[in-house]
Amino acid sequence: MNNLQDRPAKGILLRVLSGLLFTGMLVSIKAVSDAVPVGQSVFFRSLFALLPIMVFLVLRHEFPRGLATRRPLGHALRSGLGAAAMFASFATVALLPVAEATLLAQLTPVFMAVGGILLLGERFSLYRAGAIVLALGGMAVLVLPGLSADGADGQLAGYALGALSALLTAGALLTVRRISRTETAASIAFYFILVSSLAGLATLPLGWAALSPSEFGLLVLSGLFGGAAHIAMTLALRYAEASRLAPFEYIALVWPVLADWVLFGIPVSSAFLLALPLMLSGVALAAMEGRRLKWPLRR
């Protein structure tokens, strides 16, 4: 037996931990979003994410040999899409509650299902059709009630940026699917963080904020949380199949709801509660598609 079948409980625990760490990253970014420009946040998040990832690579004996690459253009595309997704994600969390920004990120596997059909020649199925319909229905339920409310323009911009972030992330992950045949996970993670740091640094001429000690500390935490979340997710996918981890997206969304309520005094909205089962059912169907295709091979 391989690790994918041997340790599902370990994979599930790591997936839950990654959701908690990811929430910590977004909470840190939201806490400074009124004072710190998005590009500056991207730079510090990426820079300090290098620390846990480099330690992880050293412990796995993948540094520096694991950084060798035969697909520099593939890395450039993946890293560029990932960096753009990070900019959009941080702009989203500045405009929306953490829970809503996190829910919009769940559109990523649905966009990947569509991208697999359009870009990779994968076949269209009822599973994918159902995933798309449910996700779009959830998106409509989340967005429509806020259109007539005060501050609707900023809210609508947040929803658009959240969907854009999910779309860019899907593009980045589809690129990972292509280049991972020859490239190591270490190189993919390292070059993404390097490009994101440089992209954030490029915004320096636009004006950065003078950081207070607390703001600097929160930006450092965002990087440490983000790097650790990446490691936890990577290990979770090693120990358990993605389809087995999909139901635990529900648990991953508990942390943002609690963070909004306890830290920012933002109660969960009725639109969020109605959109949640629709969008996560779409995610589950997208995951079931992958599991269904693997079943005949196992038999």
Automatic annotation (TrEMBL):
It comes from the Bacteria. It is found in: Membrane. The chain crosses the membrane at residues 12-32, 38-59, 80-97, 103-121, 126-144, 156-176, 188-210, 216-236, 248-266, 272-290. Keywords: Membrane, Transmembrane, Transmembrane helix. It holds the Pfam family EamA. InterPro entries: EamA_dom, EmrE-like. GO terms for cellular component: membrane. Residues 10-143, 157-286 form the EamA domain. It is a multi-pass membrane protein. This is EamA domain-containing membrane protein RarD.
